[in-house]
Design a protein that fits this description.
Layout: H1 2-10, H2 14-27, H3 32-44, H4 48-61, H5 66-78, H6 82-95, H7 100-112, H8 116-129, H9 134-146, H10 150-163, H11 168-180, H12 184-197, H13 202-213, H14 218-227, H15 237-249, H16 253-266, H17 271-284, H18 287-300, H19 305-313, H20 321-331, H21 336-348, H22 352-365, H23 370-383, H24 385-395, H25 402-418, H26 422-435, E1 466-469, H27 476-486, E2 491-492, H28 509-516, H29 521-535, E3 543-545, H30 554-558, E4 564-569, H31 572-582, H32 594-613, E5 618-623, H33 631-642, H34 670-682
Amino acid sequence: MQVDVITALRSGRTAEGLAMATRWAGQAPQDPQAQRLLAVAQAASGDLEAAHVSLDRALALAPDDASLHYQRATLFVGGRRAEEARSALSQSLALDANEMRAYLLQAQLALWDRDLEQAERQLQLAMRVQPDHPGLLTLRGLVLLQRGRPQEASALLVHAVGVAPEDPQTRYTLGLAFLAQGHGAFAEQAFARVLERFPGAHAVRRLLAESIRQQGRPVEAADVLEAGVRDSGAASADLLRFAGELRLQAGQIEQAVALLKRGAKAAPEDRRLLDALIAALRRQGDAADARRTIEDALAAAPHIDGLWSARLSFEPADGDYAGIAERWEAAIPGSVPAMQLKMWLAARAGDAATARIHADRIVAREPLHFEANVQIIHALFLEDPAAAVSHIESLLPGVSDERSLHMVLGWLGRAQDRAGRHADAVATWQRLAAVADAQSLPLPVASGATVPAVTESPATGGQGPVFLYGPPGSGVERVVGTLNGSLPARMRMDRMEPVPPADPLQVPATATALATGTLTPQAVAGGWRSALPARQADAGTVIDWLPWWDPALLPVLAAIPGASLWLVLADPRDMLVDWLQRGTSYQRFHVQSATAAASWLAGVLEPMSALIDAPPLQLRVVRMDDIAEDAPAIAHRLGELVGAALSPLRGLGPTRLASGRWRSYAQVLAEPFALLAPAAKALGYPED
């Protein structure tokens, strides 16, 4: 009878095995093994409570049987009662120090707790009993995997498979070791063997699909997963999501949508599944079906913000956004994203008062919410700058990360400026520079070269390359943005990107090398030309935005046929104030103080004034003083230079301080302004 029960249970005929075990236990009520086997069958059927009762009867009949205490531990493990399981295992080992299974189960419990040292201690004890036991080898392999040593683990597990070729746990662990090493084909074989014996093991099925996916066969991987989700249900939601992602990867959009819809019904709160469904719906291109799908999901789970966001994303431009906002907040009272939508709708409609009400509600829940604080601060800027300062200062104690601190200090400096607290504004800007110091670059060192008497570069009969430079605070980024918007084939902004061109004009030290004769202008010009193909730029038409400027570069430009220099400038004192309060949006320089910044800026501008007075080459100056906030005017001025109509830049970025605003800082920045006074005069700006 015992053999028949065990055979039935191992072959998956649980009900049959339970029936036979029940009959045997009834026929032999005084046989502890009959009661033990009944407990095993009951546990296999999912009735742990009944299994404990049967095992109690077995232990009453044979209290000194170590295997029964081990069996008790397995029931506790099945019920997630780890401490009670450990107690039962201790009793088992006290009765029989050679109960191998007890050591192994204790090691498994230690692995669950990620206590690798304890697991290894238990395995060392087990090795004294049976060093070549496949379960012992398997668990040693798991410990090696946990320690990040998959090659050693796989060698040990291959040996374990040789000892017990049909042991599923050993093959499963071997598959993990192969997968960790990227050996997808070997992992596939291991997991496939396990799945043959346990087709309902979703975790194994998922790993099998992953091993196939890693070999570049997403369709086959999806087929494996779908074989395990013939019947929908919450338990299969993970497989549905993975299968849907694989179908999406393979371009099988309709199949992906169908799978992910089933998954969303089974697990509407699974955000990754929802994101995959939204991506599939977008690629499907049927907005109406997308709305129906998400509405169905909302009917089942209206309390999920992500579903409402998804619903909003598929609403047409002229859709009922206000209606969605009302439904959203009714379903999730106090939802910050719902309030943010209402704030946005009110601001778009020009209802600043209502937008402010929603913004106040948001920051009551999330004090550092970016959009809500922008709304509040913008309103306070216009109504009560002093109150704006107080509001922003109240945010500072809650700022914990550098990025948020940079943002809040930027707001504070602008508010202090508007409130007339100019000394405080300068102090805030200097604090802001210190926060950004980790990402800053050293200021380029001047070569000491003067404006040389060189002739213009030879004409080419075409447009010729343009070298564009503007000092920090000049507003050059608005010039570059306008040119790039209308002339993307000509404009090159790559010198400010993480991977800039590898040519001599990228390196400020080139100026000193030119001034000392270490480099020749022709060599620098040749290096510039050699880098153009990688930049996809044409030597005859490129507009090259330079990150630095020095008079030593003039002979280089003279060596390039048709080259011209465009300088973007403003009143030097306005440039300094703008530099202090905004930094540079394209390249951050390390500045120790306002005086140090002014000294460096004066050194850059003074030779420029000499260049403007007697240009030795084709030179154009774009003065931003009166047009910095006027996108059409910037486009018109640049259009005159390039001989073509340019489109105004959409969105100029953060507002600059008005031209002449430097006068408000005449006392606070008296020393820096004194350093800039000669350059300002030479460039034609009034002294006061």
